[in-house]
Each structure stands twice: as structure tokens, then as C-alpha cells.
Automatic annotation (TrEMBL), chain A:
Pfam families assigned: Rieske (PF00355)
Name the record gives this protein: (2Fe-2S)-binding protein
Upper classification of the organism: Bacteria, Pseudomonadati, Pseudomonadota, Alphaproteobacteria, Rhodobacterales
Keywords in alphabetical order: 2Fe-2S, Dioxygenase, Iron, Iron-sulfur, Metal-binding, Oxidoreductase
UniProt keyword Protein biosynthesis present: no
Keyword Iron-sulfur: yes
Species: Pseudooceanicola antarcticus
Amino acid sequence: MSAGQLRLCHRDDIPEGAARGFLPLPDAPRNVIVVNRGGQLHAYMDSCPHYRGGTPMAWRKDAYLDAEGAHIACHAHGALFDIETGACVSGPCLGRKLTRVPLSEAPDGSISVPAQVAGRAARES
Amino acid sequence: MRIIGPDYLVFGVDDLEGSKTYLKDFGLKPVQLDDTGWLYEALDGTGVIIRPKSDPSLPAPLETKNMLRQQIYGVEDAGALDEIEAEMSKDRRVTRLSDGSLEFKDDLGFELRFQVTIRRELSMPAEKINAPGAPAQRAPNELGVTDDMAALPRSLSHVVLFVPDMDKVVRFFCDRLGFVVTDVLTGAGPFLRPQANDDHHTHFFIRTPAYMQGCEHLAFHMGGPTELMVAGDRFVRKGYQSFWGPGRHKFGSNWFWYFNSPLGVHFEYDADMDKHDDSWVAREAPNGPEASQIFLLQWREKWAPSGGPEGGSGA
Ligand code: FES
Ligand SMILES: [Fe+2]
């Protein structure tokens, strides 16, 4: 793992069609959500853009998707987000986006994120 | 009009099994109503009814994706239903059901039902505290906390709605149904209580665009702040997501702890809310972190000081 990166998991820890949340550091303010869609991993801050500052979206540990597994869902008020782009497609934050997190994959399948993600609670942009 | 408050809130859900697990773990008791419907009740019999969203026995959904399908209110007696029927029939269709209850829509399209309340009278002590200068509330040798203490929701307290037209909804509840405004958070909206309930609020409205119309949260009264903390702590430990709290609101003085849910609304534990009568004059404060709470805390893992360099063991 290169400097300034934090390891989240191994790529096999997230089965096809599933989502999981990882705290990049034990005292980080927000999880990073990793979703496996067709073998492709997408990652976002667990921070719904509806209310100022952003708020956590699952209703139970790792429960980040809607019932059909088609979208990332905020279970606070039901906002739905496109898994590939993070754009809100329905609900209170229409027109806004989740903050994407760049993932790095090592040859052994380790997935990591930039270290500054651990200090980031609020939605940017 | 002798309206008491919400008896049941009805939801058409995406994830029936997830919702059932959630409501049970929240501390509500499951009662199967029929093939497709479940009531999850608090100790006084009020609660939340869930059905799969495609269930034809549900009232029509809102145009938004919000899963709230109906608010069912309890009134004191059949006379109160007659009064509501007379008032509402002036300008809308009111359906009288075989059990005497009434169904109609409010001015924003929310589905409502009024019935003689199903609340069972509760007789249980509030949380007891001891303090210098006041008579002890707990007898000698009576303990304040135990590992297995009960911490169950006692009663459905209030519902909070996202509304696209505040004037319309306030006129409807106050002028037509006799609610009064107890306090106002400017920029968000008013707190309301009905005539037959002295709680600070059974309703709070938040002004939003039309595409958000629906339920923001619902809350259950607990027996006191300790029960609220114990219930919330147990809920977090089961893997549920805290959204806001624990803390204590200013308006209403109620302790709060909000959680996300698979019903797409927040579920709140609340405790120790103010009571009001008709002599109360509504306050107003700009909505924001300052007005929302007197303090705000956040859950953390249990910890104790021990094993430090000073040699203290904490024991
Ligand atoms: S906080 Fe996410 S939809 Fe409201
Ligand atoms: Fe509340």
C-alpha cells in the first residue's frame, strides 16, 4: 500500500451486487461506502447531501442499497442515487451528488482510499 | 374537537422483512392483522402498521416516493367523530367506515382516518430520580439502573411531515380540526397539539418543495431519559444507524434520539416532553442548531479509565 493510502478491505469482501461501509480509520467521522456493480467497484462518502454537513445513509450496518439493489438509498428520507455516478435521481436531494471516493487496487486485491478521506465528513462540491 | 393524537401511522414498504426486523428491534410488539398487514405496537396499543407497498388494501400513495400511506388519529368519543364529519363534509368527500371511523384527505393530499382511540390507559411510573433538596423518588435499596432494565416505547408521540404549502396545512389543522400552534421554528415550521392532548406537540411541519412531500419522522415516548439512552444504546449495538442524538430539544424540552429506518423516515425515541394548556403563548425562534437543542451528544463504545501511567486501575 502506498503512502497516504488507507486500506479498506479486499476486493472479494464485497460480493457482486452488494454494498459495504468501512471506517477508513477507527475515529473517522464517516464511512466510505463501496458498491460492487457488475464486478466494478464504486465508492462514495456515507454522507447524504440533503441536510447541511451530510448525514449517514444506511438503516443498518451495510444496508446502503434500496430493496431492489438498483440504487444507493438514503434511509433517512428515501433519496435514491445512481450507483455509477452518485447523482440523486429521486427524493429530497434531486440535483445533488454523493461525494465520490477514488479507490486504488493493489496487485493482491487490497482496496484503499486516500488518507484525507478519514477526515472528511461533509459533502464537497 | 376532542382529538387526542396519532393512533397509528400506516406505511407501504419496499422491504417488508427488513421493516419487520427493524420495528421489532426498535421495541415494538408485532401483531399480525391479516395476510399482508402487521401492526407494531407500543405499550399503550398505538403504533405503526406496515404492508407491502403493492397491497391493494392500502390507501393510494403520495406522488413522491415517501412510504407513508395514512395517518390514523384517535379521538375521545363518537361525538367527536360526528363533529369532524360535519365539518369535513362541507368541502370534501368523507367516507364513514363500518366501525364508525372516518376517512378523507387533507388539503395537501395526505390520507387521514379518524377513529375513537384504541389507546389503552397506561399505569406505570415515570423514571424516578433522587436529588438533594427534594424528597427521594426511589425508596431505599431501589436501584436506578440494571443491565436487564426494560426500555420499551410507551406511546406514539408525534409525526413530522414535509409539506409543500405551510399556510394550507396549518389552516386545515387549526381552523378545521381545532389544533393550536405551541411554538414556531421560523424557516422550518410550527409545532401543533390537538385539543384533547396536553403534550407540546403531536405534529411538526417542515416547509419543503413538492417533490419531498411526506413523513420526515415519527416518535415514541419513553419512560424517561435513562430509558431513552438505554433503548438507543441497545439499538446501536444491534447495528442500527443513529442519525441525530441523543440530545434534548429546546421547544418541547423532550429528549431525542433519531435513527434511520427501512421505512424511509426517521424513528425517534423521545422522553419528558413539556405539557401545555390554552394559556400558553407560542414562542418563535429561527430554525438552526442553536434553537434545535439545548445540548447534543453522540454514541460511543463503552470505555473506562484504567491502566494509565499513574498506575490507576480504575478498579
Ligand atoms: S438525509 Fe438523506 S434523504 Fe434526507
Ligand atoms: Fe421529533
